[in-house]
Request: fold
Amino acid sequence: MGRFRTILSKPVLWAAAKFSSKPNRERIFEALTRLSASIMEHPGKRGLVIPFEHHAGKFIIFSDQHKGNRNGADDFKQAETNYLDALNYYSSNDFCFINLGDSEELWENSIWKVKKNNKATFEAEKKFLAHNNYVKIFGNHDLYWDTGLWAYWHLKSMFGEKVKVYEGVILKTLVRRQDPIAIGSGVDSLDSELTIFLTHGHQGDAQSDGNWFSKFFVTYIWAPLQSLLRINPNTPAYNNEKKTLHNHIMYEWAAEQKDVLLITGHTHQPVFASLTHLERLYKQLQFAQQDKDEAAVKDVRTEILKRERKFTAVSVDYMNMKPSYFNTGCCCFRDGDITGIEIADGCIRLIKWSEAEGREVLEERELGELQMELA
Reply:
């Protein structure tokens, strides 16, 4: 078998490199526009529309767990403890859990092995389902939930009841925000609708978001072939160049919409209000230099050097980007930490869970404040 894998791996990797393409702006724009319109026009088919009260709604969004079979290639193994702690916290505090795709690693593992080795996490997710607080979205690595002939049966055996898996979800709320023009005229605030569009983020990927044949090929041929050969060719999650480009195209689409925030996963890179952590550091550096704060300049430059060891790309217009795009990051970082997006108390937050610190709020903005900046 080892020799068989060696013989086949080279041509398969060659084919993957040759036929994979960089993220395509036109294709991604078309796919996101089509999906958001479909959800709004036919809610319940490809996705849900969930209205919520500005300060009362509570959502936790995690993605990219990539639950495997607990072998050496299982990226989720180190993060399982933090994930279970987080789910216990959010279920106890009555959050709605939006599972934003690639929850199960079904390109590298059979569904049977994933089910067998992840019973504790499925039990934790069932707690949300019991209170009608669970929304499951499919991604490209668990595309099986959308195309698999026996997907409904496996889901029922995992969760004890029928579970529908969607491509996206739209949250809608009325945000009360201060209007500087209205203040002093007798009307100090206005209610305006904010739309939050959530999807995994693989839309526009020719390998897994194309026609019925490409989806069939990925589900029944490509994914089993990867599992057999134990290979994982570059995807946006592993390739920094593609990761940066993909996130930026997602941002460009969101920036063109009116009163819309876009939340995705897929790239495994946290983004908050359209900025990566590195871009936020560069922005802090600019302000520190303007203020001639030498101590701050030194501290920020030290942090930038640490971050640039892993990631160097920075958007050219990071100083002027609209705060319209967010990315959850992932639940399979090598150190076991997990990141996600919280919406609660009228705010949106980038959070991290670690064994050392538990829950940490990394970034936070008020929804009303964000909406004013979207105009």
